[in-house]
Write a structure and sequence with these properties.
single chain; 394 residues; mainly alpha; two-stranded antiparallel ribbon
Length: 394
């Protein structure tokens, strides 16, 4: 049985260090046999790598600090430049990045760098606050002595005027718990509290924070899962979508949540927002592919979409059922029986898609009688090679 991870590219994930997050797969796009789907924490590559590299490659010139010198500036001069509001934005951002890197790399400079960055969290410019937040968190990720101060700073930034900074601060709170066992309870309890926060971007980030903390600290997993089930019905479509994918990630890594996840996301097949609906369908189909024992339940859940829905949704459901049937020989005949009536659907694309998947299942498992019936229907080449992309996400 194939096993490939969920991924998410968190649109604005927090800046701490590369080795930060323990391996917890996150979702990006449903583009392979598992719905590699949308945003959030990514494996052991963590929040900091995403944002910190973003500063280097998108906002700043490449920053290299060597021998306490940055483009001719000493560390002391960099500390001054970081807080100099008369300088242009690019120069200040370069100085902040250099100060953070020096404090991270050199223990003898960590205290001075950390102290210089803290006032910048109150700067008038959101770009400066964001850069200071990233570098402060980076230093705290390495030196636990800064942890408590950093945690409190992140909590205070939950009320920042910039939604992106509120989001990054939320991620940072989760990361503190992921990176340091001593912050496990504080981080998890704060995530639970923030799951009902009034800011959508905070709740959106909380979803993956809870999931990651729950998977690292198994005693919290059940509470995280149950909270995510509630968040899957949040008033915000963005939060609902993220929660669905995080439920799917838990099901991927913990088989005993697979059946409950199907039941939790099935009502969202009728969600008014297409992205949420697609997430629920994608997760259900993937669980059916991942776990043979839950394939019948997944196909049964998906089959309700085959009769009174849009052609696009029907084709997605057909694709998912088809992939389940092709993945598990013992369920191939059932999948074919579910898809057969669609050969007479009113929509031509639905008819063709159903015929193609019937043939694909027959080919995969050498079901000769079905091969003969399917050959009279048009098919596109390479179906099995593209079966993993029935649903896509931004």
């Amino acid at each position: 049985m194939k096993k490939s991870g969920f991924r998410k590219n968190l649109t604005g994930t927090f800046a701490l260090t590369t080795a930060f997050l323990l391996a917890t797969s996150l979702i990006t796009t449903a583009a392979s046999a598992s719905p590699s789907v949308k945003h959030h924490f990514s494996n052991a590559q963590g929040f900091h790598e995403r944002l910190h590299e973003g500063f280097h490659t998108q906002i700043l010139l490449p920053v290299q600090v060597e021998e306490d010198d940055f483009f001719g500036w000493t560390f002391g001069a960099l500390l001054e430049r970081a807080g100099d509001q008369t300088l242009d934005m690019k120069s200040r951002l370069q100085a902040i990045t250099a100060v953070g890197k020096t404090g991270y790399d050199r223990p003898q400079s960590a205290d001075e760098a950390f102290a210089a960055l803290i006032p910048l969290l109150q700067d008038d410019e959101s770009e400066i606050r964001m850069a200071a937040l990233g570098e402060t968190g980076m230093i705290a990720s390495k030196y636990l002595k800064f942890g408590s101060t950093t945690f409190d700073l992140m909590v205070s930034l939950l009320e920042d005027s910039d939604p992106a900074i509120r989001s990054e601060a939320t991620a940072g709170i989760a990361i503190m718990g992921l990176n340091h066992d001593s912050f496990r309870e504080r981080s998890f309890n704060k995530m639970l509290e923030l799951s009902q926060n009034s800011h959508t971007e905070i709740r959106d980030m909380v979803s993956s924070g809870l999931r990651s903390l729950g998977e690292k600290y198994r005693l919290h997993l059940h509470k995280a899962f149950n909270t995510l089930k509630v968040m899957a019905h949040d008033e915000s479509a963005r939060v609902r979508e993220t929660a669905v994918y995080d439920l799917g990630t838990i099901a991927e890594n913990n088989w005993f949540y697979a059946q409950e996840t199907i039941q939790a996301v099935k009502p969202l097949f009728r969600d008014e927002t297409q992205a949420v609906k697609a997430a629920a369908i994608s997760i259900t189909g993937w669980i059916g592919q991942r776990y043979a024992e839950y394939a019948p339940e997944a196909m049964k859940a998906l089959s309700v979409l085959l009769w009174k829905d849009t052609p696009e949704t029907k084709m997605t459901a057909v694709s998912m059922i088809g992939m389940i049937g092709a993945e598990h020989k013992e369920h191939g005949k059932t999948a074919i029986d579910i898809l057969k009536p669609l050969i007479r659907d009113d929509d031509q694309q639905v008819r063709e898609t159903a015929a193609e998947y019937i043939q694909a299942i027959a080919d995969a498992h050498n079901i000769v009688s079905e091969k003969k019936r399917a050959v009279s229907f048009p098919s596109r080449p390479g179906l099995l090679g593209s079966m993993g992309n029935p649903v896509s996400k931004i």
